[in-house]
Amino acid sequence: MPAPFFRFKQFTVWHNLCAMKVGTDGVLLGAWTPVNPSVKQVLDIGCGSGLVALMIAQRCNEAVITGIDIDEGAFLQSDFNFRQSPWSNRLRALHLSLQELEQSATLPNHNSGTVLHSSLQELKSGHTAFDLIVSNPPFFSNSLKNPNQSRTTARHNDSLPLNELFEHSNRLLNETGSIVLILPVTDYQKCVKLAESHGFHCTASVVIIPKPNAEPKRILLSFGRIKAPEIKSELLLESGTRGEYSVEFAKLVRDFYLKL
Fold first, then answer.
1. Surface-to-core class of residue 114, CB atoms within 10 Å of its CB (0-12 exposed, 13-18 middle, 19+ buried)
2. CB 186, CB 214: distance < 8 Å
3. Is 163 inside any structural domain?
4. Does residue 260 sit within a domain?
5. Structurally, how many domains does the chain consist of?
6. CATH number at residue 206
7. Residues 6+ apart with CB under 8 A from 148
8. Tens digit of pLDDT for each residue in 160-175?
9. Fewer CB within 10 Å, N or C, the chain?
10. What is the structure's pLDDT at 141?
11. 3-class SS letters over the chain
């Protein structure tokens, strides 16, 4: 039976309460997301177990990260993982949707009840709260749904179509902020066009190749409001030997995986 947790070098992620377990997609997003010293406020949309938020907390010494999820089990899981981590004072879990987040007048700190982010009025006036928005969003749209409702919510985009993700992010992100996603590689063109319709431009992309000679399945994408040439690259996950990481992937995750 698989363990109900995954241990990293500086933190442990329990995932027994949430539908989507710790996986390569989340690790890639947390490790690759471009960050700089100006990143102070981060939003993780559909945070699940809290994996991505925890990885960014490890990478950004001063950033405050808010994770939101509409699934109660995922919210409870991320809240627990955040509280047990070395960065509990900089991590917050909220049980609400992206749509509800934007509508909320204030966002309470789960420990002290103080306001963590801007009021709705400030958001509407352009004083937006976030420097970075990350998401490993649900991306199945017309496929057979799992009888487990939590897993269906985590995997299907009924509750958060990409168009709405960009629409709400446009009002929550500051002018120099960025949105970083991991998606099926087949959604690349559609996602770029949707982003552009909301004033965002793809600044970087990484095609993820599972192993040599295999078809790519995922792509990492970074969007910003400033138009610039897109930096394109590829990342191989496994070398020729099954279960053996490529040099590039091992370098990307060496600060997190115990055996690297």
1. exposed
2. no
3. yes
4. no
5. 1
6. 3.40.50.150
7. 19
8. 589 999 999 998 999 9
9. N
10. 37
11. CCCCEEECCCCEEECCCCCCCCCHHHHHHHHHCCCCCCCCEEEEECCCCCHHHHHHHHHCCCCEEEEECCCHHHHHHHHHHHHHCCCHHHEEEECCCHHHHHHCCCCECCCCCCECCCCHHHHHCCCCCEEEEEECCCCECCCCCCCCHHHHHHHECCCCCHHHHHHHHHHHEEEEEEEEEEEEHHHHHHHHHHHHHCCCEEEEEEEEECCCCCCCCEEEEEEECCCCCCEEEEEECECCCCCCECHHHHHHHCCCCCCC
Residue indicated by tokens 């070398």: 239
> What is the token pair recorded at 142?
């017309």
Hey, what amino acid is at 236? Answer: L
Domain interval for residue 118: 5-253
Is 259 a member of any domain? no
pLDDT in tens, 15-73: 998 988 899 999 999 999 999 999 999 999 999 999 999 999 999 999 999 999 999 99
Q: Is residue 258 part of a domain?
A: no
Q: For residue 18, which amino acid is it?
A: C
